[in-house]
């Protein structure tokens, strides 16, 4: 299964949202002087985590969809 089957357009949105959320949290830590402000470390780890989570979710949803279609065909 290539990236096309996983929805590349949606993956781009997931990456964009992950970057925005990660940097929003980092800058809020900088402004409030709470937590540890790490400009590259946390977003560098959060974005791949979001990509992995999205990919697994898409694969699971596709598998569930295939199974439910198979059950519907057998019931007819």
Describe the structure.
By secondary structure, the protein is mainly α. 79% of the residues lie in helices and 0% in strands. It has helices at 8-32, 41-75. The chain is rod-shaped. It starts with 7 loop residues before the first helix and ends with a helix.
In short:
With 76 residues, the chain is mainly alpha-helical. It contains 2 helices and no strands.
Structural class: mainly alpha
- How many strands in all? 0
Per the principal axes of the C-alpha atoms, what is the gross shape?
rod-shaped
Instruction: Please provide the ordered H/E string of secondary-structure elements.
Output: HH
**Radius of gyration using CA atoms only:** 18 Å
- Approximate helicity band: over 70%
Strand content: under 5%
Measured between the Cα atoms of the first and last residue, the distance is: 29 Å
Average of the residue pLDDT scores:
84
Instruction: Return residue spans where pLDDT drops below 50 for at least 5 consecutive residues.
Output: none
Largest sheet: none
Number of helices: 2
């Amino acid at each position: 299964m290539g990236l096309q089957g996983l929805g590349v357009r949606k993956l781009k949105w997931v990456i964009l949202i992950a970057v925005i959320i990660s940097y929003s949290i980092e800058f809020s830590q900088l402004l409030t002087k709470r937590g540890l402000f790490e400009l590259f470390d946390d977003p560098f780890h959060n974005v791949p985590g979001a990509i992995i989570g999205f990919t697994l979710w898409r694969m699971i949803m596709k598998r569930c969809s295939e199974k439910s279609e198979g059950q519907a065909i057998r019931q007819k």
